[in-house]
Amino acid sequence: MVKISSKNFKVPRPFLKWAGGKTQLLLELEKRLPQSILNSGIIEKYVEPFVGGGAMFFFLKRNYQVKHSILIDINPELILTYRVLQDDHLKLIDKLNDMEDEHLRKSEESRKENYYHIRSLYNRQMDVIDYDKYVPEWIHRAAYLIFLNKTCFNGLFRSNSNGEFNVPFGRYKNPTICDEVNLQYVHQALKKTELLCADFTRAEEFIEKDTLVYLDPPYRPLNSTSHFTRYSSEGFDDEDQMKLAKFYKKMDQNGSNLILSNSDPKNHDINDNFFDELYNGYNIQRVLAKRNINSKTSRRGEIKELIIRNY
Ligand SMILES: C[S@@+](CC[C@H](N)C(=O)[O-])C[C@H]1O[C@@H](n2cnc3c(N)ncnc32)[C@H](O)[C@@H]1O
Predict the structure, then answer these.
(1) Exposure pattern of 107-142 as b/e (b: 16+ CB <10 Å)?
(2) CB–CB of 140/118 below 8 Å?
């Protein structure tokens, strides 16, 4: 049975908690949408090449008529889960409801055991799953991922260098594992949406005049010893940022509307002009956003984010 609660108020919304999720920035981004979209409420074509948890995509779906969308991310587990929500949401909801019932019936200690059991099933499945071909096992995998995201410590997706999910158990009183109403709305939102597991450059073939493109790449990691970051935990270093700026300039040529967000390196070093130089000539604005800068709640603070538009 569908549980209606005040939590179901804003739907559809991200079904996963995702590192760098942009919920805090949505109103600032909305203010900066092209005037024609603000006036008409219609987005003919939307492309998001770093979709992650999709805070902006779901926000636009809630508030605008988005006619056609293309969502891209390089993370195969994420795109697999979106695809299951697109094609098999009812089976996914059934599986998640069963998992939730079983989990919440247990004592705290048994929940912990159950969590590690699911985590190990998920990690073992990685060797046999075919990410290119949709098979029923995808439904289980998507359910495991959502379960782990809702019950792990800090609720994030993180894997080690072998790709194994390695976040420890999180203690929650009564976690909602199957947010059925939202998942139904997410399924609706994913109609007329193409999903691709690919590098952001694949977006090129979909971007044309008037396409709205929102780009939210991984944050530029801080490196206290050098301003040039060659390696990053997410595999997105300064060379990738430069490749992205080149891509941005190319897409600018074809009349699309580009909005890019990024952390502002000036939060930590006022002289760091990395993005100001990279996007010189574009509309660069700095806005305040709340960000969970590390896992300790006391370190949550307001910092500046960059919003860079070509209009
Ligand atoms: C900051 S997160 C996006 C968060 C998203 N805006 C949200 O609200 O959840 C960046 C995303 O880029 C993806 N990513 C990293 N490198 C990529 C690449 N080369 N091409 C496409 N996606 C990439 C990551 O998997 C991650 O999901």
Answers:
(1) eeeebbebbeebbeebbeebeebeeeeeeeebbbbb
(2) no
- What CATH number should be reported for the domain holding residue 171? 1.10.1020.10
Asked, for residue 189, whether it belongs to a domain, the answer is: no
Rounded-to-integer distance, Cα 77 and Cα 122, Å:
11
What's the total number of domains in the chain? 2
- pLDDT (tens digit, 9 = 90+) per residue, 4-61? 444 446 999 999 999 888 888 999 999 999 999 999 999 999 999 999 999 999 999 9
169 and 95 fall within a common domain: yes
Pocket test for ligand 1, best of 29, 56, 73, 260 (most atoms within 8 A of CB): 73
The pair of structure tokens assigned to 201 is: 């450059």
The answer to whether residues 274 and 223 touch, using CB atoms and an 8 Å cutoff, is: no
Looking at residue 268, its pLDDT comes to 86
Same-domain check for residues 154 and 136: yes
Averaged confidence pLDDT in the chain:
90
Assess whether 206 and 303 both reside in one domain: yes
* Residue 289 within a domain: yes
Closest ligand 1 atom, residue 75 Cα: 25
- pLDDT tens readout for residues 256-302: 999 999 999 998 889 999 999 999 999 999 998 876 544 444 445 67
Going from the Cα of 102 to the center of ligand 1, the distance in angstroms, rounded, reads: 33
Is there a single domain that holds both residue 272 and residue 214? Answer: yes
Q: Which residue is closest in CA terms to ligand 1's atom 7? A: 21
Together in a domain, 303 and 225: yes
> Does the residue 192 lie in any domain?
no
Residue 18 domain flag: yes
Residue whose CA is at the smallest distance from ligand 1 atom 19? 199
Domain residue limits at 138: 82-182
DSSP class of residue 8? G
pLDDT given at position 227: 52
Q: Which of 25, 26, 47, 74 to mutate to test the pocket of ligand 1 (most atoms within 8 A of CB)?
A: 74
- Which residues form the pocket of ligand 1, taking CB atoms under 6 Å from any ligand atom? 18, 20-22, 49-50, 52-56, 72-75, 199-200, 216-218, 234, 236
